[in-house]
Amino acid sequence: MLELEGFHGQTISIPEDLLYYKEQELWVKPGQEPQALAFGFTQAAVALISGFTYLEFIAGLGDFLQQGSPVFAVDTYKVSFELYSPVSGKVVYLNLGLEGDGAVRIEEDPYGLTIFVLEVSEGFDPKQYFLDAKGYFEALEAGCVSICGS
Questions:
Q1: What topology does CATH give the domain 2-144?
Q2: Which residues 6+ apart lie within 8 Å of 143 measured at CB?
């Protein structure tokens, strides 16, 4: 586990067994089958957002999303924004328990809550597309933050 001190006044953890999508501060976990990718917000995202108030899924189960298609919308104390699919794939899981005001649960355990899962094409190598923990740590340490206009 890597730890970054002083990130927006907090110490954040970066699990080394996950990959990271820096553009939206998401963690990525390849599933048992290599074409399934689970996504959730990182602890850095929680520190940046500080106050999830509402989440609404835009995509539905079984939808095929192109990279850049909206997956869900989030309201926070600071801003409202949409989160876009990092890669193309079929939606195979949505954590419906986070919808509505259930979004506040994200702050309690960001690495323990999968928000959505995509099934991507065979042969997709997530390690070629997403950052490892060290790369993500270095990006955060350099001040590269990009979620919700930060």
A1: OB fold (Dihydrolipoamide Acetyltransferase, E2P) (2.40.50)
A2: none
